[in-house]
Amino acid sequence: DTKFIVSLVSDIGFGASLRVGVMDPFLLGLASNRTVLFLNTISKDIIDLGSFNRPLKLASCERQDMQCVFMPLSPCVITEEEMSRAPILEEYIELRDFRRKGFLGPEHVNERVLIVEPILDGHKALPFGLEDAMVDKIQSLYKEADGGKDLKRLFPPVWDLSDNVLEKVYNFIRKKGKQKWIFHHLINLYFTRP
């Protein structure tokens, strides 16, 4: 059963919105295996949280949300009832612990929907376990493509997708330290797909 993190895109400028506004919820979703949805225009009847009740000024279509510019992150939808019951994770208590430990407290672990307000600080620590979650995603995609046979067909023969090379990629991702940029750049590329 799919679990979600719901957040929104801030009106701080197009690049900054991606760089700092959507990055943290997306990384938390990746680390916790939750689907992230960005919803800007939720009715006050559902959740009375000012930032979620305003349209995205940067958007020019009738929806006035992220989908005016980008493809949806997921085909999944959640109900208004689920949104109205969803807990809002507190930045200085629950989200800090979530980042440090890599998992949610017992009061939230079984919740289908969690609400995370965007934190406009590009210097947040990566969530604990993010590296392993990224490797798990790559491995599952590779295995889904028939053990990589389909992937190898898609790429030129000069691309070495052997198990040895993939293990080097996994080790690079798991290496603590200076590879933080890889997460930010890959996620920005994902968000900005047409």
Q: How would you describe what is shown here?
A:
The chain is mainly α. The chain is 42% helix and 6% strand. It has 7 helices and 3 strands; from the N terminus they run βαβααβαααα. Helix 1 links the parallel strand 1 and strand 2. The radius of gyration is 18 Å and the shape is globular.
Topology, element by element:
Elements: E1 4-7, H1 14-32, E2 35-38, H2 80-85, H3 91-101, E3 113-115, H4 130-144, H5 149-154, H6 163-174, H7 180-191
Parallel strand pairs: 1-2, 1-3
Helix pairs in contact: 1-4, 1-7
What is the 3D shape?
globular
**Class by helix and strand content?**
mainly alpha
> What percent of residues are in strands?
5-15%
Q: Classify the helix fraction into a percent range.
A: 40-55%
Tally of extended strands? Answer: 3
Oligomeric status of the shown chains?
Answer: single chain
Number of helical segments with 4 or more residues:
7
Please state the CA-atom Rg, rounded to the nearest Å: 18 Å
Question: Quick one: biggest sheet?
Answer: 3 strands, parallel
Unreliable sequence segments? none
Q: Return the string of H and E elements.
A: EHEHHEHHHH
Taking the alpha carbons of the first and last residues, their distance comes to 28 Å
- Order of strands across the widest beta sheet? 2-1-3
Mean pLDDT score: 76
